Amino acid sequence: MKVGKAVLVPDNGRQLEALIEVEDLAAGYGDQVILEHVSFRVRRGEVLAILGGSGCGKSTLLKHLIGLLPPLAGRIRLAGDDFTAATGEARLRLLRQFGVLFQAGALFGSMSLLENVRLPLEEFTGLPREAADLVALMKLELVGLKPFAHHLPAEVSGGMQKRAALARAMALDPAILFLDEPSAGLDPVTSAALDALVRRLAEVLGITFVVVTHELPSIFAVADRVLFLDRTAKGVIAEGDPRTLRDACPDPRVRRFFRREADNGDPTTPTAAGTPRERP
Amino acid sequence: MGRQMQETAAAASWQVREGVAFLAGRLDAAGAAALWPVLRLPPPPAAGAALQVDASGVTYCDGAGLALLLQLQRLAAAAGCGLRITGLAEGAARLLAPFDPAGYAEVGEPPPRPVKLPAQVGEAAHAIGRDLVALLAYVGELTAMLARALRNPRRIRWRDVTLVAETAGTDALPIVLLVGFLLGLILAFQAAIPMRMFGADLFVASLVGISIVRELGPLMTAIVLTGRSGSAFAAEIGTMTVNEEVDALATMGLEPVWFLAVPRVLAGTVVTPLLTIFANLAGLAGGLVVMLVLGFPFVTYVNQIKEFVGWGDLAGGLAKAVAFGFLVSAIGCLRGLQTGRGPSAVGAATTRAVVSGIVLITVADGLFAVLFHCLGW
Description:
The structure holds two protein chains of two kinds. Chain A is an alpha/beta fold.
């Protein structure tokens, strides 16, 4: 089974596939283990949010999922293909199947927004220049930035940069999009628009999203399922529907996180383990 | 019977039968790339009638496929006829609907602005003028800050000064010694060949001594400092400017020039003459090697140097080094503070610091030459 692209003409039989499978993953840097025994699956077209207090390993997990860091142990599969063990051409082929929205956008500063989005199309497809331009412009229109196509990243706001980075991540119609703090630094209106876009892309295109975020409104707006990490537990302490976890999770750390309750000195609270960025 | 056309890609196809176009197969990047160059619309069936494209055979459609469908709409609009796409799967139709072909009349980069030489010359002159004004303002502010530092030396951030002095001075010593030694060696060797023809090879020592101590020692040290430390100052302060750390200083009531430039300028001004002394010694050692090879004893070389190179030459060279150190450090900090937005701005600031530093050193060296001539030094 191979990782397909986003399916615009859906094949309903593929909707229940586990597109990402993480098996007994241990993640960290050198001798420092941040996460261990982490296992979960993400279905095609699902929006999974990874949550937890600061320092719990969300970004570390994301870096392992996108192949920037090798796992200390365990395995990551993308639609059945072992991403952890893949090398050379096989790894390149898997890398092209997902897009990443980095927290700060990571747009190339010397290129216009259009050139940023067009770059992967030029490098990885045989599309003629006019077609690549058209695809890039359509992606920019999807995120509401077509009028700014010829602006440099430094000439637009941070929120616009983030949306342009999302357009670039979608350029090759990947089956999976990893979003690192997509709402950070955005105003509520722009943030809500981005959330709506994520939902629309997941439902219409069948794109699978893995979103690392702290923003509670964003979590409830986009996530089908959440994965709650904890620093002291070095792993997943809760998994499921965000509303169910908020209302009925037996773990007080999770309930406090969703209710934005301040640290009361309990070392197992998320605020004691790290510090959530939201103001109480 | 209508005109027959058929273009087939590996997995996508475009056919025209009886005035109706049929689009089928996988409309992904490969399919779109194959069909794009051969996409031709048939003539409309009747005046004012819309062309029909039957897309019921499309099995897959991604962003590139949507662009292909939009391209069909653009071609129809350019031909002045309507286009009706039928049979397209609901998901793809929903995604295509928001894209208005009228908004895609112009695709690609905008045409480059026409080059107007007078305007460019004017803009460049204006930029130079602005830069000179900024330079004057900066010199004024820096002078005031240095005067304040002299009045209140305890307010100077000595920890920063010593840190900068270490990186700009101590760490630069090996390269200054190496360049100085090679400079003296090359100078002596190149001079020895023609001078020996006239039996004047003994005077190679005095030539090397005067050249190194008065001119090349301070100049070479300043150029090394420009490339090594002036650029580092610009990059460091430039990154702080991009990261809004300089704004943070300003809003905390801390003057960026005092906080960032004064320690660097003080350190640069102090270490440059010290490095110049080492460069002079290394240069003279390089000249000595050549003289020994030519058969002159060590004592002869030293005596020649003592006879021709006076304390005035050394003092003049070190005075130049002080001025060069001040200029290089000050311009490096200024270019850092002038950094624009974006990551490429730091690179531009660094380049400007090095270019400005070398220009200023050269101009100052010329002024010193005139000054020393007038003083009869």
